[in-house]
Amino acid sequence: MPEPRPDSLRLLDAAPEPGTDATTWVTEHRAEIRALVARHGAVMVRGLHLDDAGHAVSVVRRIIGDGMAEREGFAPRDTYGPGLYSSSHWPADQPMCMHHELSYAAEAPRLMVFACVTPPSAGGVTAVADARAVLRDLPTGLVERFERHGWLLTRHYNPFVGLGWEDAFGAKDPAEVERYCAAQGIEVRWDADGGLRTRQTRPAVRTDPESGERSWFNQIAFLNEWTMAPEVREFLTSEFGPDGLPFNTFYGDGSPLDRATVDLINDVYAQHTVREPWQRGDVMVVDNIRMAHSREPYRGAREIIVGLGEPFRA
Fold it and tell me: Which of 56, 123, 180, 217 has the greatest number of CB atoms lying within 10 Å of its CB?
């Protein structure tokens, strides 16, 4: 017999009546979907027919309502409307490790929706992990240290890797970026060549304002230098120096993280990872506080529409 699925991802068979449009079905069942997300943390709706990206955007919009614009992004996305995007244009052969969307920002989405227009030929799963369980299973001393000091994210926006600051902040004027960063508690330093370096310290643990439950809520492991592929890390370090990586994370007091600690965090995530391979028309709805998510390497075409909704102060 197959092993029972962990409670952190519920599969929901849509089974719409013949001729029922996916947008109509989602609108009629939105309350049921949201109730399942509240109970399980994530739900995969299966059996819908999505004709193209435009149809998927319509479905996602009905679930998230008013979308939340992304600021401080890491990789390019195609934009389809307020809070509506393609998945990040991240190299297909490189994983996106477990993280909570925009957990480094002052404002993050509570709700995320992923809609599969074209599944990859192999890999490419958007996996999830219960961040309450991750917090429970991390070493107490490690958690206490991060709770005392938070976690520090450094970024180096340059025209060669990832997004430049103009695209990340949606601004052309450095003064506008400085005003935004000052309001969000982000330290700013400009390079002589126009590059931008930032530092921001955020809490590593989040208490759900509704349930009171605590979750490991951050991107400490994903954005750390030790999670990068060795050849990528070596190339970037040789090009920009150890302090010029496009992103890196530290303890909140500025102390560096060693490889063993980063590997430990990723290992605990792996123990709680739930995977469901994409099928055409799948729609996954995720509570971004309770659940971390990742994207595995893949082959072939892969088209996923992403929605960000219900912003909260993180």
Answer: 56
CATH of the domain at 183: 3.60.130.10
| Helices marked H in 41-173 | 53-64, 131-137, 140-149, 165-169
Strand segments, DSSP code E, in 223-279 are: 247-251, 273-274
Give the separation between CA 252 and CA 185, rounded to whole angstroms: 14
C-alpha 144/C-alpha 102 separation (Å) is 22
Closest CA to 240 of 142, 299, 155, 173: 155
Same domain, 136 and 259: yes
Domain carrying residue 56: 10-129+276-313
Number of domain units in the chain: 2
- Per-residue pLDDT of 189-209, as tens digits, reads 999 888 899 999 999 999 998
Domain co-membership, 123 together with 222:
no
Residues 136 and 264 in one domain: yes
The pLDDT tens digits for 89-141 are: 999 999 999 999 999 999 999 999 999 999 999 999 999 999 999 999 999 99
Tell me whether residue 140 is exposed, middle or buried, using C-beta atoms within 10 angstroms of its C-beta: 0 to 12, 13 to 18, 19 or more: exposed
Among 6-20, 128-142, 205-219, the least confident range: 6-20
In the three-class reduction of DSSP (H, G, I as helix; E, B as strand; rest coil), residue 131 is classed as: helix
d(CA 92, CA 115) in angstroms, rounded, equals 18
Does pTM top 0.90 for this prediction? yes
Q: Is residue 125 part of a domain?
A: yes
Q: What is the DSSP letter of 150?
A: -
**Three-class secondary structure assignment of 274-299:** ECCCCCCCCEEEEECCCEEEEECCEE
